[in-house]
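Assess this one:
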Amino acid sequence: QGSSWVSAQVGYEVQGGPLKGLGIRFEGHNMNKPEYVESDNEAGTLNRSTTKTGAYYTFKLSYKY
């Protein structure tokens, strides 16, 4: 079966002042918590497996000098 997922990211880098080069980024992955279903029909028996995923989020700080 087909499935879809939702991911997004937003970030900002300071361009001037004493914090110039500081970067902040927030990312969200699998935010809709997709479920993957796999099926096959082997020897007349329907086999089906389901994998549930969870969302995860990251917050990143970086600095360029």
